[in-house]
Design a protein that fits this description.
191 residues, 2 domains, 27% helix
Length: 191
């Protein structure tokens, strides 16, 4: 699917279907393409996860394990990916999201990972990526997205990002990740 979104200055939204499983977002004078995962994306995803500075070696390995699983088994793996490219003439991978249906539920999905290259943050790319995920979940018959994150101060911007996108804090599990680091669970019912 291709959607054309307005820049932040406009108030109307135009959507146009052009190609299956691809979305084009016009952000200022630059196009943003959001598409499915490709083998060539793995090193870019690795760089994005590492350069965020938020994840340890085990977490980076886990992120890449999900990429490998999705590349090997496709949607059968239970992991769906949206890859964001930014730029006009030579688009570069600047972000990605990994999500999938929650087993044994009807229409509940988990957002496992969403990350934007630190040099590209603050430009609305994460919002475009999250909107794409929400639209895809709806298209697949989903009704809810759940997101888990850390309560550490370094995740403050992440928490604000989810809240601004309409996600509600529905659970807090004290000392989940380690003493002093709670698990926060956010939820959003999709219309």
């Amino acid at each position: 699917m291709v959607f054309r979104f307005p820049t932040r200055r406009r108030s109307s939204v135009r959507k146009q279907r052009v190609e299956e499983d691809t979305e084009v977002v016009i952000s200022g004078n630059t196009e943003v393409h959001i598409r499915r995962l490709d083998r060539s994306d793995r090193p870019f995803i690795e760089k994005i996860v590492i350069s965020s500075g938020k994840f340890n070696d085990v977490e980076v390995a886990t992120a890449l394990e999900l990429v490998d699983e999705a590349l090997a088994r496709g949607e059968e793996s239970g992991y769906l990916f949206a890859v964001l490219e930014h730029g006009n003439k030579y688009p570069v991978v600047r972000g990605y999201a990994c999500y999938g249906p929650v087993p044994l539920t009807q229409g509940a999905y988990d957002l496992y990972w969403i990350a934007v290259d630190p040099v590209s943050q603050g430009k609305g790319l994460g919002s475009h990526l999250l909107e794409y995920v929400e639209a895809d979940v709806l298209r697949r018959g989903g009704r809810m997205i759940l997101i888990e994150t850390s309560s550490q101060e370094s995740y403050g911007a992440t928490v604000r990002f989810y809240e601004k996108a309409g996600y509600e804090l529905v659970a807090r599990i004290k000392n989940f990740y380690r003493v002093g680091d709670d698990k926060l669970v956010f939820s959003k019912e999709l219309a």
